[in-house]
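#struct-pred

JT: dropping the chains for the assembly here, can someone run the whole complex?
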Amino acid sequence: MISAPDVVAFTKEEEYEEEPYNEPTLPEEYSVPLFPFASQGANPWSKLSGAKFSRDFILISEFSEQVGPQPLLTIPNDTKVFGTFDLNYFSLRIMSVDYQASFVGHPPGSAYPKLNFVEDSKVVLGDSKEGAFAYVHHLTLYDLEARGFVRPFCMAYISADQHKIMQQFQELSAEFSRASECLKTGNRKAFAGELEKKLKDLDYTRTVLHTETEIQKKANDKGFYSSQAIEKANELASVEKSIIEHQDLLKQIRSYPHRKLKGSDLCPGEMEHTQDQANQASTTSNPDESADTDLYTCRPAYTPKLIKAKSKCFDKKLKTLEELCDTEYFTQTLAQLSHIEHMFRGDLCYLLTSQIDRALLKQQHITNFLFEDFVEVDDRMVEKQESLLSKPSQDRPPSRSLEECPIPKVLISVGSYKSSVESVLIKMEQELGDEEYKEVEVTELSSFEPQDYLDMDMKGSISSGESIEVLGTEKSTSVLSKSDSQASLTVPLSPQVVRSKAVSHRTISEDSIEVLSTCPSEALIPDDFKSSYPSAINEEESYAEDNEGAIHFEASMSPPELGETEEGSVENTVSQIDSSCCIGKESDSQLVLPSTPAHTHSDEDGVVSIPPQRHRQKDQEFHVDFSVENANLSSQDNSYEGFPAYELDPSHLLASRDISKTSLDNYSDTTSYVSSVASTSSDRIPSAHPAGLSSDKHKKRAGQNALKFIRQYPFAHPAIYSLLSGRTLVVLGEDEAIVRKLVTALAIFVPSYGCYAKPVKHWASSPLHIMDFQKWKLIGLQRVASPAGAGTLHALSRYSRYTSILDLDNKTLRCPLYRGTLVPRLADHRTQIKRGSTYYLHVQSMLTQLCSKAFLYTFCHHLHLPTHDKETEELVASRQASFLKLTLGLVNEDVRVVQYLAELLKLHYMQESPGTNHPMLRFDYVPSFLYKI
Amino acid sequence: MVIFEAVGWDRASRSRGPFTLRQAILILLAPNLRSIRNTCTWGQVWGEAAAGHIAQAPLRFASAGDDGIIFVWNAQTGEKLLELNGHTQKITAIITFPSLESCEEKRQLILTASADRTVIVWDSDTGRQVQRISCFQSTVKCLTVLQRLDVWLSGGNDLCVWNRKLDLLCKTSYLSDTGISALVEIPKNCVVAAAGKELIIFRLVAPTEVSLEWDILEVKRLLDHQDNILSLINVNDLSFVTGSHIGELIIWDALDWTVQAYERNFWDPSPQLDTQQEIKLCQKSNDISIHHFTCDEENVFAAVGRGLYVYNLQMKRVIACQKTAHDSNVLHIAKLPNRQLISCSEDGSVRIWELREKQQLAAEPVPTGFFNMWGFGRVNKQAHQPVKKQQENATSYSLELIGDLIGHSSSVEVFLYFEDHGLVTCSADHLIILWKNGERESRLRSLRLFQKLEENGDLHLAL
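RK: done, full complex below.
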């Protein structure tokens, strides 16, 4: 653990079950009065007083086409977590910022509805009134029955700590992208299945209609068609058209490169089948009318149904999220989300240091096995190192230490992006490029100066009469047209919000909506945003002042229990969904149409009409530079085509749309390709929950007990020296609990052999054998009073040469002399450290230092090999000794510690090569001394 | 090569572990199921002989246990190379049959004899059973190879001679019930066999122009021992030594089979120093049985009961001894370079001794097991200094304990010493322990480490 333990420890200690070392209480007059507003033991830095929820949580919302924005589920699914926080209200907020959504529908130039494979948009927003800040991840799922075939969803990570959201943006974005990719993959699969069934229905319907028409024709020989016959013919035509359209949709959804999709079952056979069907299409029909539910019942052989024309049903039950995404994928997503929730628990400071820790540990792959219990298989070491190298300073979080790190690449992309812009010589884009560049810088440095916000963040600001602040957006692209929903929701969509969002004229209102920052890869900021930012600065500053104290010292509010289970949240979802069927709310969503659509549109046109060339260039670069990385970057291409849902009124689908649409079509493939590649990198992650957090308690307790041991026993130093120098320490005692406790505590000083568990045996009751000393370096041994125990003691005294013996009952220690300076620093009985976890970190930090010395010693070539042929071994040995003493500053027995660690390093390094390595018992012949209290 | 460095001797400590061997590594090997009583080693000679060809072959050794299983080990890493299954009862003898240097085929054989009255020949490279000989009337108790003649002999109740192709060339008649317990080669195509109290000299007649048959003839029986002969080894080309159960040590001339020297009094209670020559032994005879010999150019080292004795060939007397070297019978001893000696015992201990010339008696601490030089009384000891000055060959010697190896929990039956790889001890506690010099191993590991770094291209030498 390489970190500043003194600070970190304040942030991660929720309860003190044991406080063994009590300082003498201060006289009353000297004691500092308690923080007056502290309620139930909250610490004075808690910023959460303003927030209505007790800790961070994840909210999934949907913009239902029936009832508007509504929350679907939270993770953890525990009402205690979000408390009185108004989820409905917040859903409204977060759903309304997805103003760059794209659409699906009939583009003017094309005969059939087009699907867009679009990227998710990522927005950071804050609501200072609620004390809530959120990373919001918008995504769109396909639903045949929804308007425009899409249903917008969003996943939000809600925290009371603004800085946490901002600084962890990269990590959040990566994690949520995984979850989203998982959902979307499942959704595509489900959608394709749905389309197939629908096609069968239509085919069947056509057959039936055709037969009926024929019958009518035969019955009717008057030479003219009755109105009934005409109606039938029209109906038939509309069915034909519908078939073509659906076939086209199916083709589109399948054009999504599925080789990358894990578990995708779209096999080639199905494709052929579809094409066969496509050949049969001939007439047109009304595609909008579809009212067939129940398509998801999975029967092996699907029985087609007759589709009745004009059977519009608004009180239909919309599909639940689970239905939309295939249960398997849905569960996987929930697992990923709760993984995210675990991952980002706790205070920002804690997260950052642990990220730095992990990142640095990765680099120390040669030595970190010795004392770190952090063992994680990661084959992308190189990427990690890159990210660390590119880190300008330590205050910047090591972005995505666990996953791929896009930051260096983002920087690269900006550079190349700029140059390409210059070659195009379009002034506006130049500006945009600059802006983007600055944004990147700022995010890199993660500074929070208001000036920076002035430059870039405010541009994206949305202001409204509400207290929503958009803290940042990543270029967003998603297919958003009309949303369908299960309408358990009571919050009606406010027309005002809609207006303020949909219209790109954004003005600062009296309310506290602030865009605090945009993500580095922000693609385009509408021109009209710029006019608004000067006034936004003030707001931002005042905001910053308001929260000044709270920003830095937010205590973690997340209790460490891992009680929430996925099933719980699933159940909750289900119950919500059950209550949500058949609410005729369609009129609600129609209210949503913008009040000043024309104006909006012209603005957007101005933006949209310019870029196609640049898109293309950028796109190429993405493929050249990062074939694997970062779907969200490539999705910039589509951001221009993103239109708010409210502009999808067919009357506004004007000529400009054609341009954007063609470019959109061009990019949909490449974009989807890139995003699919990105999804593969994320595929392996879900459901892998790190066990790290759960061991925190263990660490704390071990640290506490070790501290206690150090204070209690004056001979703690030689005991610890024994452990560090690889001499087995036997802890002898009658009481198993006490022995176990001490063994667990002392285990933090035991170097491991390799990546497996530490060589510690907590409790042994049989006489020790020589093999035990080979296997274990720390043994808890039962002292038995009976004659049987004599054997144990006999064996112990026989092998006393190889062991140090700590007798807990008699409070004695038999072990070699120690006169070094290392252990006193490691285990100072007068230390001011009082908390177990702090001490644990202190130990880890000292041991890391020690490891680096051992590393130096091991890998210095001239120390171990003669520099020339005639050099004697004695000369080499004396060089080693002087290196250890002078360069590493080791005295007396400290040398042995480093030598032992060096041996372990050598063995470990050699082990990587094939070949058997027998464990060996290594010992020094040194006399032992008996210590007593 | 120093395998165990002796640094000091802590007088304060009463335990028997006051030795400061600097560092040692102990590698525990997977055990045989039963106690391990026999080992053999090869590879050193082999490696030298075929330097270009098999130099890479690791030094190996085989261990045979009472469970009838033979394991072949890599002496460097302690890796188990082969497991030879075939015998149903305990192994009584094991020996390697090196290939002839002239021979093209460098196939090395292992011969094992077992209480199941069979001898099995193994291929030491593959572990394959080459042949199994089961025509014995009795258990073969000893095997020996006469490399000069390219034959091997098996000794049981009779003595058989075999060639490399495992044909029985000739055999003696039934010799005795006890059977041959030891067998050594002596010059003039003769072998000495110890059968009970008797030493029997056989001469081997190789085929000549006259007769194409091999033959083995009993030449002489030597009846000088009063009790069963327990040990028999060659001292040099001209003499061999035998030791009996009641502590008789006889050095024989290998050419004319006469007694060169006779030493039988290994019991020397201090009070009766003056009458040492005539003392009848009142101890359990167990205490003076001679279990094992080892020798160098000057001395014969004998494991007598619990003690160790050094018999000087020139002076024809015991020059140093340690009467209670171990708590129990010493089972095996071996000579190290630097006048050092290793012994192992039934009590599970392995100890290292050094034969030192005594310089200053007064300054030397007197250990509990202190012994005096044979033939010198207390009076002599006090007058040691002037004596030494006057008389060159009166230099007194002592066996000093310089280290012990604690690890086995049961009788240590046998050990093997490898010049460069340390020491292998085999015990009845089913363990084989490989003892190594920690400092040397550490150096070797560093060497390998940098080799590996270089292979990986990770080695950057700063200028």
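JT: nice. The interface with chain B takes residues 769-771, 774, 795, 798-802, 858-859, 861, 864-865, 873, 899, 903, 906-907, 909-910, 913, 915-918, 920-927 of chain A (CB under 8 Å). Confidence is low (pLDDT under 50) at residues 1-21, 102-107, 259-300, 375-694 of chain A.
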